[in-house]
Specification:
Pfam family, one: Fer4_5
Keywords: Membrane, Transmembrane, Transmembrane helix
Mean pLDDT: 88
Protein name: 4Fe-4S ferredoxin-type domain-containing protein
Number of helices: 9
Distance between the termini: 25 Å
Number of domains: 1
Low-confidence stretches: 191-210
Order of helices and strands: HHHHHEEHHHH
């Protein structure tokens, strides 16, 4: 049996992040670590080590689906693995992220703060119980918007976990697609080692039933 490493428990960090955001929305800023670290590893290291070893969300989905048997463990539809869907979903996700940044800019320039978390880009959840009066309004606005992005991706991951293989989210995760593209640009022909067809790609290949 393989000896557990500290990196095997990063799913706890993912859970803590979600719970902390429920009680104080400003903790949503910590999610920038999940956003920036994979990009830095891909840009400066030329690998998808984050997806392969340090992704707390992937670990959490694996734990829920495999250990707790919450997944149907069915192969995901082929379109989830297609280039057009993965890059199309990345473009859509980044567009929504850009709109969130624009909302933050509007608050920075004087627009009123909106204390809502948008789930699945459509459902606005009231979040008035938190106090963000001690920070600049734009800081609070970014926190509300970014937590909505993180919560939305978590819900999508949970849905595909239940319907398909536990880590089916890894197949079309925007961050995974983005870091794969960076590795291709950085490493050229060596990109296959880091691409989604690699053996270490966040468990997506085996878990998604390829």
């Amino acid at each position: 049996m393989r000896k557990k490493k500290w990196s095997d428990y990063l799913w706890i960090a993912e859970l803590c992040y979600l719970f902390l955001g429920l009680f104080n929305i400003l903790f949503a800023w910590l999610g920038m670590l999940f956003f920036c670290i994979p990009l830095f590893i891909a840009i400066f290291g030329g690998s998808k080590a984050y997806c392969n070893h340090y992704c707390g969300r992937g670990q959490l989905l694996g734990l829920l689906g495999e250990k707790l048997k919450l997944s149907r463990n069915a192969p995901p539809p082929k379109f989830l693995r297609s280039l057009w869907f993965r890059y199309g979903f990345l473009a859509f996700f980044m567009t929504m992220f850009g709109l969130m940044l624009f909302s933050t800019y509007q608050v920075f320039t004087g627009a009123p703060l909106s204390q809502t978390v948008t789930l699945l880009w459509m459902f606005k959840l009231p979040w008035q119980w938190v106090n963000v009066s001690f920070v600049a309004p734009w800081v609070g606005q970014f926190a509300f918007g970014f937590f909505g992005v993180m919560l939305t991706s978590t819900v999508l991951g949970l849905v595909t976990m239940v319907l398909f293989r536990p880590r089916s989210w890894c197949v079309y995760c925007p961050m995974g697609t983005m870091t794969q593209g960076i590795c291709k640009l950085r490493n050229g022909k060596k990109a296959k080692e880091y691409g989604r067809t690699g053996k270490k790609d966040c468990g997506a290949t085996e878990a998604a039933g390829q």
